[in-house]
Amino acid sequence: MNVMCNLSEGIEERGIEKGIEKGIEKGIEKGIEKGIVKGKVELYYNEMHLSEKEISEKLGIKESEVKDIIAGTVDSALSKASKENDNRDSDTITMDSFMDV
């Protein structure tokens, strides 16, 4: 009886491992697909100046998805610019900082 339990536990563990591996593979595939779609949306919008509707029709995705991608791209660019400005501001020396010394 003990051998049967050990055998079924081993089979269960292998099944779990295979399930995890397949889940990771599918997640990677989905991530790659999303990245490709995002890249195409950015290209069509920024370089080819297509409308959101034209992009959604061309890619076969919802217009709301196109809007979300464009909004995310703009937010990302603004966030990056803000961080760059913050870094420049922290490097700036003012007269007040000399007075504190």
The largest β sheet comes out as: none
Name the helicity range. Answer: over 70%
- Low-pLDDT parts are none
**What is the arithmetic mean of pLDDT?**
83
Estimated share of beta-strand residues: under 5%
How many runs of DSSP E, i.e. beta strands? Answer: 0
Query: What is the general shape?
Result: elongated
Distance between the termini: 80 Å
Total number of helices: 4
Rg from C-alpha positions? 26 Å
- The total domain count is 1
Query: What class would the helix/strand composition place it in?
Result: mainly alpha
String of helices and strands: HHHH
Can you tell me about this structure?
It contains four helices and no strands. The chain has 101 residues and is an all-alpha fold. The protein has one domain (2-85). The N and C termini lie far apart (80 Å). The mean pLDDT is 83.
List the helices and strands and how they pair.
Layout: H1 2-47, H2 52-59, H3 63-91, H4 95-100
Helix pairs in contact: 1-3, 2-3
Fill in the keyword field for this structure.
4 helices; single chain; 101 residues; mainly alpha
Q: What's the short version?
A:
This protein is mainly alpha-helical and 101 residues long. It is 88% helix and 0% strand.
